[in-house]
Amino acid sequence: MALLPPLFRKLPVSFFAGAGVVAILIAGVLYMQRGAHVEVKGSILKVRTLAQQDDSSIAVVDFRFANPSNYPFVVQRVEVSIQGPDGQTYEGATVSEVDARNLFNYYPVLGQKYNNSLLPRERVPSHQMLDRMIAARFEAPEAKLLNRRDLVIRVTEVDGAESLIRERP
Fold it and tell me: What's the burial of 136, exposed, middle or buried (CB within 10 Å: 0-12/13-18/19+)?
């Protein structure tokens, strides 16, 4: 008791025991809720680009992501954006799965289509890892896509939670 400041010397031992019990209860609640935060985490594996016209191009992004929470992640919306070499942000218009298949059929320069597109209403089970792709059309020349500073995939869950998958953290 001699090591405690004078204010704490007057407190009964039961106070410290009660504070210890409360601290253990709070730690237990936090430990039990560790998987309740719904989000996806991932990384971008490969980016392929295709010039369409002078002022528009397509980016096909293959990525891997996981749902570390205890609950399924149901996709509401998927958006893709790039930050060009000039610092300007360009939003991409995502392409449907049918159009993505056609894109690979018509433009063999893109190579093989490895993964299915991440689509709205897709359910990602808890503690699962998936490989998906997303294709998007940008109102920017291919040179801006090739020299981009960053590429971001924003995945929104049906309850509003947003997760970002970045090319460069």
Answer: buried
